[in-house]
Each structure stands twice: as C-alpha cells, then as structure tokens.
Amino acid sequence: MRIGVIGTGNMGALLVDALVKSKAAKPKDITVMNRTKQKALDLAERHHRLSVSESPIKVLQNADIVFLCVKPGQFYSLLESLCGSWHPGQIAVSITSPISVNQLEQIIPCQVARVIPSIVNQSLSGSSLVTFGSSMADLSKNKLWAVLSQFSHPIEIDEENIRVASDLSSCGPAFLSFLLQKMIDGATSATSLSRKQATQLTTEMIEGLGKLFAEGIYTLEELQKKVTVKGGVTGVGLTVLEQGYQDVFEKLFTETQKKFVEDKEAINKTFGGEKN
C-alpha cells in the first residue's frame, strides 16, 4: 500500500510517525510534501527511505491513499490545483474536521473519507475518527480501516457528532494536560512538595491510570468508588472539584461547537455552500 501525505505540520508528521512505528507502512512506500520543504526533509531524516516530493501532484502519482493534512483555509486551493490528477482507484483522506465528506466529494473525483487522528496515536493507542464518503466501496473502507487499526482504534463517527468526538479524542489530551498541570500547580503552591516531584508523581499516576483502563480493570465510575473511602481525604477533594468544576465542561463543549460553526461557515463560503 503506497501512502501519500500532503502537509507535514504537527498532525501530518504525527501520522507519518504512527504509520512507520506501527509498521502499517514502510518508509519507502510513503511520499510526503510540505510547502515549507524543510519540515518534510526533517521527516525523511527521521525515517530513512521516505520520499520527499516537490509538488502535491507528484504525491498523487505515487500513492494509493493520500492523506490531506493542510489547514482548512488552504484546502480549496490545494484541491483545485489537483483537479485532473486523481485516479478512480485512489482514496483521498482529509484530517480536517470542518470540511465534510460531502464537500470533499464535490471536488475530488475519487473515493473520499475523513479521519481525525489523535496525538496519542503516536503510542499506537487511542481512537481515530472515521467518516466515509457515500461512494466509498467496501473494499476501500476495509483497506483504510486496516491501515488505521495498526496504530489506533478506528471509530466511525457521523457528521453531526464529529466536533464533540474530536474534542474528546483529539483535543482531550490537551484539555487533560491542562488540568493535570493545574493540579501540579496547586500541590506545589499549597505545600512544600517540589515541582519536580509533583510532576513525576502526576505523570506516573496518569500512566498507571491509563493501563488500568486499557486492561479493563476498572471503569471510570468503579475507579472513583474504589479510591474514595467514606469520610476520607479523597471524598473531601472530590467535593471541592464538584463545586469548582460544576459546569466547566458544558461551557467548554459549547464554546468548541461555536468555533466549529464559525469554521464551517468560512469553509462553506470557499466551497460555495454544502450540498447534502
């Protein structure tokens, strides 16, 4: 399976790293291209025999699956430049959530899908969110699913829920990292514990917590009950959290939905509206 990646910023590079680390693809079967060529060359330095292309069209000429990893504002002009370069057997995969598969199908004359990866895919874990285009054949769906399964747990998500699903799986690591950092700040501010020790304890705790969930030892609810002793310290701490974070996540998801709507409106102007 030959794979092309157009755009090697944070997410494009992450995708290449995950593909190679999981052995879903060998470097010699991956072709990448980036507007700032040095970023692509840096990837080639990391993964020997990976090919760096001079143009998006040349990426298409050497790929069966093409991952489009550019910013939403760059998408339409990129796709316009590729008109006439696709062939029917290819699979075009966008990793940009505000652009629907319907919009992709308006301008890409081959099978399309959208895949939202997560930074945790670098550790060959976590979810990847998949939305298939209406014309995608079962064989092509299976091919793409097989590739994604090497470094993630693919989950099919409908258009209506793509933003909130992305918030949980893709943005979630940043949100949780923020909360963990605040926990470290609080511990070092209220006590004499050093930041180094607080950081070590917190990171090792979260690593172990992930393993408990991965091995199915506890659910979220079960773990909380297991650690909380009636009248104990954990219960006091949870009461404080309940008071302080009562509706913070409702606000968070409300705001991310608003931003998503804004992004989609900007994209719709570029694509000339969405056809359902």
Automatic annotation (TrEMBL):
Cellular compartments annotated: Cytoplasm
Domain called Pyrroline-5-carboxylate reductase dimerisation: residue spans: 159-260
Primary residence: cytoplasm
Pathway assigned to this chain's UniProt record: Amino-acid biosynthesis; L-proline biosynthesis; L-proline from L-glutamate 5-semialdehyde: step 1/1
SUPFAM superfamilies: 6-phosphogluconate dehydrogenase C-terminal domain-like, NAD(P)-binding Rossmann-fold domains
Protein EC: 1.5.1.2
Domain of life: Bacteria
Entries under InterPro entries matching the protein: 6-PGluconate_DH-like_C_sf, NAD(P)-bd_dom_sf, P5C_Rdtase_cat_N, P5CR-like_CS, P5CR_dimer, Pyrroline-COOH_reductase
Keyword terms, alphabetized: Amino-acid biosynthesis, Cytoplasm, NADP, Oxidoreductase, Proline biosynthesis
Domain Pyrroline-5-carboxylate reductase catalytic N-terminal: 2-97
Catalyzed reactions per annotation: L-proline + NADP(+) = (S)-1-pyrroline-5-carboxylate + NADPH + 2 H(+); L-proline + NAD(+) = (S)-1-pyrroline-5-carboxylate + NADH + 2 H(+)
Family recorded in the similarity comment: Belongs to the pyrroline-5-carboxylate reductase family.
Functional note: Catalyzes the reduction of 1-pyrroline-5-carboxylate (PCA) to L-proline.
Record's protein name: Pyrroline-5-carboxylate reductase
Gene name of this polypeptide: comER
